[in-house]
Design goal:
Elements: E1 8-12, H1 30-38, E2 43-45, H2 51-60, E3 68-70, E4 75-79, E5 82-85, H3 93-103, E6 109-111, H4 117-124, H5 128-134, E7 141-145, H6 152-161, E8 164-168, E9 173-177, H7 182-190, E10 198-203, H8 209-214, E11 217-222, E12 239-245, H9 246-258
Parallel strand pairs: 1-2, 1-10, 10-11, 11-12
Antiparallel strand pairs: 3-4, 4-5, 6-7, 7-9, 8-9
Amino acid sequence: MPSLQQPLLIVTDLDGSLLDHHTYRWDAAADWLAELQRHQVPVVLCSSKTAAEIAPLQKRLGLAGLPFIAENGALVQMSATRQVRIPPQSPDYDSLYQQLKALQATYRFKGFHDFSDPEVAAMTGLTESDSALARQRQASEVIVWRDDEEKLDAFRAALQQHQLQLTQGGRFWHVMPAGSGKGEALRWLLTQYDSAPATLGLGDGPNDAPMLDAVDYAVVIKGYSKTPVSLSRQDTQRIYATAHYGPEGWKEGLDYFLTQPD
């Protein structure tokens, strides 16, 4: 089992995991966040949110200055002045958007680029100011699929021709560069450490599976997605599925792996 006394890195999804799916609050996780800070255990946020969304939230969580993974693993923010797209040299947002715009002639979908801040707020429950931050994308696009479900496979194939891939999040679909993802971003991030710490990951959605497969210990938080979190790893003794949703499940997962017996 991992220990607070050893080099340890916590990697966590936000929406539906550390943050409540409906209210975006993290009250139930607050005591553990304080305990991790006291033991100088870094908490790396790993989210579909943009860097513009994560940076102020990171400060409110008491995690300012730590690296974080944004846009479902298409971007790693190492510091205030250093960002890395995953994979490196992948296309920027403007190029990705132009490729998607061409595909809208064949498939019915809209991206966050096509919506206004009030429209995104209505879909997500975010405030309009937070919705503006969610639309400040740098490496991927969030889309609302409005075509037939059976056309998704053809859409995936069309994306592949442009070196893009489709990932399902908790609420929306995400179009990202091929070879990106939460798992790939985490693996790249760990190469930046002189000696790799033990890793414990927490997530609730299908898009979290690559990250949960890449960590040493995985907490699958009970989620609302119709698609279950399916892991490829077989070391079941290092996987814990929670009975609770959101930050209550987050707390439950850390209690399971990190609470030491008396």
